[in-house]
Design brief:
Blueprint (H helix, E strand, L loop, with lengths): L2 H28 L23 H12 L4 E9 L6 H15 L12 E2 L5 E9 L4 H13 L6 E5 L1 H12 L2 H21 L3 H26 L7 H30 L5 H28 L7 H32 L19 H4 L1 H12 L1 H16 L21 H12 L8 E6 L3 H10 L3 E6 L1 E4 L2 E4 L5 E8 L6 H14 L7 E3 L1 H35 L3 H28 L7 H33 L1 H28 L7 H33 L15
Antiparallel strand pairs: 1-3, 1-4, 2-3, 5-9, 5-10, 6-9, 7-8
Helix pairs in contact: 1-7, 1-10, 6-7, 6-8, 6-20, 7-8, 7-10, 8-9, 8-10, 8-20, 9-10, 9-17, 9-19, 12-20, 13-18, 13-21, 16-17, 17-18, 17-19, 18-19, 18-21, 19-20, 19-21, 20-21
Length: 696
């Protein structure tokens, strides 16, 4: 053997082996951070608003009027009959027990008795930075030790926050395991090989490990704001995208192994044919996500760079780790169905794809009937979009399933003004205190108004800080309800024109400002994403008509998904509504990911059209990519569907929207509508490139 040949063989082994070892090292560094992501994550809604938001300012002002940022737990007691003296004694004993836990900030409120004398409640102030998972059970245990003879529940903002924390606790364990198990099962069915699913999932896990390592450090440095939903979407997005890109590369590598006996030559050919669509597809998703940086909401803004980082590592894994492993394994990676070299010059692609050959013939025979009929059905489904109630939901509806906080709130609402315990905070000057108080009390949605006080030698007086006082307005509706938000909005409209320095905060105001910011994002981000994706498609396909057609089909698919989602949310699952961010996130994922499958198809159509003309090229591209793209869509839909294991309304809705939309894009839009339109429009699909001037 010549020295040159020996060096070539060593190089072909050393290079891929080095790549694999580098990824193993990255995974080793990033792996431990899977369990530490909660250290840099917060589910406090107030942290997602911009610092300029009115409710954010008031939330920060609370520290001036109190010793620390507090979040209350409300303990509500109820009896079928009027509370007896002995029961009142028991409630006071509970108050004393709660004070002794050492986790209470300041004083537990006096016992507040309802007008019907059948219920009472205590407000227990906690530091907002407390470890609720530890503190709340201690409080519950302290209450239970009093052997109460009446019903009692824990509720309030701190309890709802703990509900969210519990619901999100399965993200770095259950969600990841479910997603990986689902993907493995699908890959095993697709490949019928024990090795390829393992290799593919290793690449996805390595990409996720690298992404978490970077994201954790960015969050630690305060560059991005993480919460549970961003964390969960990152996991799903990276696993789904990395698997999709792997499927595309593996399919092309298998195809090249039938043309090249040498696995190095097959690897070079597969990499050359795959890198552009993979980078373009990933770049489309990344840039679409980065459009979220213009969002007013911190939760939306965080998903931009976090998701973009995840997609970048998914691309790198698919174009480095995967080719390296497959180069080392060669045909053995596909065992027991190893691809055989085709020694003939005949292109018998249809023999390897019998099902998609039939679909290709159907598209070739009836392109106009297909696209017209299917587009009509999709437009019909779009008519249900107005039924989608995406104007926000109550905090008590965030968590699905059993919730003591929700049960306690219902018990509280039976006997007290529903806004009790979670007041709206109003900051005003001392000079305007009396006038503003009068206007607040005059509103139909306000039950009572009291100032935050401090105790002096003359008793309690309104606390004054820098010439301002903070009023607490108890609303007649639950603080997290849509009606309470409408009350705050009305109060702002009534009071601020006359007293512009007055500012509103608290749970209701935070949710109102969050909702308004989300609606602003909806109007800004959707057009921006459409422009960005259109430019990418034009650069990739070297045409103007094809990108516009693809964009229209993808937007139509998104509209259909929203229409179907409205029907399912309202009539099947009977959800109370949806947050506007659900529409934003759904649009980002569906348009960006839906375009991915069209990119995979149209880049292959362009490649084959150059060789054999529009008709033959379109049908061949549809046939040879049909299996892999459909498999990729099913994998991505399944990974997003795994979000259902986290009992959060937002994630359940995103799971359905993305899963249904991806399947619609993959199986209908990409498989039937896009190729049918390509055949219908013909060579003009590629205008103004040279392909539009070809006669075939």
């Amino acid at each position: 053997m010549h020295k040159k040949d020996a060096k070539g063989i060593i190089w072909r082994i050393a290079l891929p082996l080095a790549v694999v070892l580098i990824w193993l090292a990255i995974s080793g560094l990033g792996g431990p951070y899977f369990g530490r992501i909660s250290e840099v994550s917060s589910n406090d809604m107030a942290t997602f608003l911009p610092t300029s938001a009115e409710s954010t300012k008031v939330n920060n002002d609370l520290v001036k009027f109190r010793d620390s940022k507090i979040i209350p737990v409300i303990v509500v007691f109820a009896s079928p009959t009027a509370l007896s003296p002995s029961q009142m004694t028991q409630i006071n004993d509970v108050s004393t027990s709660l004070k002794r836990t050492g986790d209470v900030v300041g004083a537990v409120s006096p016992v507040v008795v309802s007008d019907d004398h059948k219920a009472a409640f205590l407000v227990v102030p906690l530091d907002s930075n407390s470890d609720f998972a530890k503190v709340i059970p201690q409080l519950q245990s302290a209450a239970a030790n009093n052997n109460l003879s009446l019903q009692y529940k824990f509720t309030g903002p701190a309890m709802f926050a703990e509900d969210l924390n519990k619901a999100f606790s399965g993200i770095d364990g259950v969600l990841l395991l479910v997603a990986l198990a689902v993907v493995f099962a699908i890959l095993f069915i697709v490949y019928r090989s024990p090795l390829l699913p393992v290799v593919t999932l290793m690449g996805a896990i390595f990409a996720l490990s690298a992404a978490i390592l970077v994201v954790w450090n960015l969050a630690k440095a305060g560059v991005v704001q993480l919460n549970g939903q961003v964390q969960g979407i990152l996991f799903i997005l990276v696993i789904g995208a990395a698997t999709d890109y792997a499927l595309l590369y593996i399919a092309r590598y298998r195809e090249e192994l039938t043309r090249h006996e040498d696995k190095w030559a097959a690897t070079k050919a597969a990499w050359k044919a795959s890198w552009e669509p993979i980078v373009a597809a990933g770049g489309t998703v990344s840039l679409g996500l980065l459009c979220l940086l213009v969002s007013d909401l911190g939760s939306n803004k965080a998903l931009g760079p976090v998701g973009g980082i995840g997609i970048v590592f998914a691309i790198l894994s698919a174009l480095t780790f995967l080719p390296a492993v497959l180069l080392l394994l060669g045909r053995k990676a596909f065992w027991p169905r190893q691809p055989k070299l085709n020694s003939t010059k005949v292109d018998n692609y249809h023999l390897n794809h019998p099902t998609w050959t039939k679909i290709g013939r159907l598209v070739g025979r009836h392109p106009r009937r297909l696209w017209v009929g299917l587009v009509a059905l999709l437009v019909l489904a779009c008519l249900f979009i107005p039924q989608l109630k995406a104007d926000g939901v109550a905090q008590s509806d965030f968590v699905l399933g059993k919730s003591e906080a929700r049960d306690g709130q219902a018990l509280l609402d039976q006997h007290f003004p529903p806004g009790s315990g979670s007041p709206t905070y109003v900051v005003t000057s001392v000079d305007n205190q009396a006038a503003v108080t009068k206007l607040l009390k005059a509103d139909k949605g306000v039950d009572a108004v009291t100032p935050i006080v401090e105790y002096t030698g003359h008793g309690p007086v309104a606390k004054v800080v820098d010439g301002d006082v903070m009023l607490q307005a108890t609303l007649k509706d639950p603080a997290d309800s849509l009606t309470a938000r409408q009350t705050v909005e009305r109060l702002r409209q009534d009071i601020q024109p006359t007293y512009p320095s007055v500012e509103f905060g608290g749970v209701s105001a935070i949710q109102l400002d969050t909702n308004n910011a989300a609606m602003h994002d909806l109007r800004l981000i959707i057009p921006l994403i459409l422009v960005v994706i259109t430019i990418i498609l034009m650069l990739l396909l070297r045409a103007i008509v094809a990108p516009l057609v693809l964009l229209l089909t993808t937007v139509l698919s998104f509209g259909t998904t929203l229409g179907v989602s409205a029907l399912m949310f309202n009539n099947v699952w009977q959800y109370p509504g949806a947050d506007p961010s659900v529409v934003i996130f759904g649009f980002v994922f569906l348009v960006a990911l839906g375009i991915d499958y069209n990119i995979f198809l149209m880049t292959r159509i362009r490649e084959e059209t150059i060789k054999s003309g529009v008709r033959n090229g379109t049908i061949k591209a549809l046939v040879v990519t049909g299996g892999v793209i459909s498999s990729a869509g099913i994998v991505l839909a399944s990974t997003f569907a795994a979000l259902y294991v986290i009992p959060i309304l937002f994630l359940a809705q995103i799971a359905f929207i993305v899963a249904f939309g991806v399947l619609l894009d993959t199986l209908i839009v990409r498989s039937l509508i896009a190729p049918s339109l390509t055949l219908e429009i013909g060579r003009w699909m590629w205008w103004p490139s040279k392909l539009a001037k070809r006669k075939k």
